[in-house]
Amino acid sequence: MKISGSVGFESTPQLLAPGSTTLAKAGLSASDMSFGDVLKTMMKDVDQSLRGAEQSAIGALTGEVPLQKAVDSVVHAEQKIQLTAAVRDKIVAAYLELTRMQI
After folding, report:
1. 16 contacts 30 by C-beta, under 8 angstroms
2. What distance in Å separates the CA atoms of residue 102 and residue 42, rounded to the nearest whole number?
3. Please, which of 37, 39, 72, 81 could form a disulfide with 33 given CB 3.0 to 4.6 Å?
4. What is the pLDDT of residues 14-70, one digit of tens each?
């Protein structure tokens, strides 16, 4: 997805892109997913990324994996963790705002 008005900024939403591998692995299409399904799929993806980064780091220590690949894997996992924390913070903030509403 290219955002107009920005120079060179491109985003590839892998989680909700129709036909993406993450959705295909979950057996769902974008229109069939509930909010809970999206969170569950996101957490599974983060978990797989962390496990892959750990394996790459171990492989780099033993010399089986090139150092650049291990660093890329760890940085990618770190970005996913930061995204997950940001989503969690937004969900908690929305919940707190809902609890402050007067009915």
Report:
1. yes
2. 32
3. 37
4. 444 444 455 555 565 667 788 889 989 999 999 999 999 999 999 999 999 999 999
Tell me how far apart the terminal alpha carbons of the chain are, to the nearest angstrom.
Answer: 40
Distance CA 16, CA 85 (A): 18
Give the residue among 87, 77, 74 at the shortest CA–CA distance from 40: 87
Residues 58, 63, 69, 71, Cα dihedral to 10°: 60
| C-alpha dihedral (54, 56, 57, 58), degrees to nearest 10 | 90
pTM exceeds 0.85 for this model? no
